[in-house]
């Protein structure tokens, strides 16, 4: 068995990076497509947490009353903006991660495939 045959045997498990990209438009779904369920839950949890914090700080900024809130008004604006950045960073990280995982999907199977003595000798003779 050569490397091309080993690669073709894993063709049924091929993950399309383009599909992974389209699935990853919804946070965590690209990881589900790649079979990384725990990573999907982490990404979705982080995304929801950042969104909740952004929304919470937005409400505090918009309904600011110095008697009700411990921080100054501009601090809620800064925190809102920080969480908006985190939402974007987590989102794009998840997209890139899904595409890279899809590209590297067959790598483990290829590395685990046995190499026979003939392949080693052919490689040394070249």
List the helices and strands and how they pair.
Elements: H1 3-9, H2 17-23, H3 29-33, H4 37-62, H5 73-103, H6 107-112, H7 117-125
Structural class: mainly alpha
How big a fraction of the residues is strand? under 5%
Largest sheet: none
- Sequence of secondary-structure elements: HHHHHHH
Name the overall outline. Answer: rod-shaped
Low-pLDDT runs of 5+ residues are 1-11
> How many distinct beta strands?
0
Q: Helix proportion of residues, in percent?
A: over 70%
What does this structure look like?
- The protein has 126 residues and is an all-alpha fold.
- It has a domain at 21-104.
- The protein is 72% helix and 0% strand.
- It contains seven helices and no strands.
- The protein has helices at 3-9, 17-23, 29-33, 37-62, 73-103, 107-112, 117-125.
- α2 (17-23) packs antiparallel against α5.
- The longest helix is centred in the C-terminal third of the chain and has 31 residues, at 73-103.
- It is rod-shaped and about 80 Å long.
- The two termini are 18 Å apart.
- The model is unreliable at 1-11 (pLDDT under 50).
What's a quick, concise take on this entry?
The chain is mainly α and 126 residues long.
Jot down its keywords:
mainly alpha; 126 residues; rod-shaped
């Amino acid at each position: 068995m050569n490397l091309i045959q080993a690669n073709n045997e894993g063709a049924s498990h091929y993950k399309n990076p383009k599909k992974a990209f389209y699935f990853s438009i919804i946070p965590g779904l690209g990881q589900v497509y790649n079979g990384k369920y725990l990573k999907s839950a982490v990404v979705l949890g982080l995304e929801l947490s950042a969104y909740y914090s952004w929304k919470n700080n937005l409400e505090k900024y918009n309904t600011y009353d110095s008697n009700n809130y411990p921080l100054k008004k501009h601090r809620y604006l800064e925190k809102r903006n920080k969480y908006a950045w985190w939402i974007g960073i987590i989102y794009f990280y998840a997209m890139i991660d899904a595409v890279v995982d899809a590209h590297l999907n067959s790598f483990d199977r290829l590395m685990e495939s046995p190499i026979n003595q003939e392949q080693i000798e052919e490689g040394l003779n070249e």
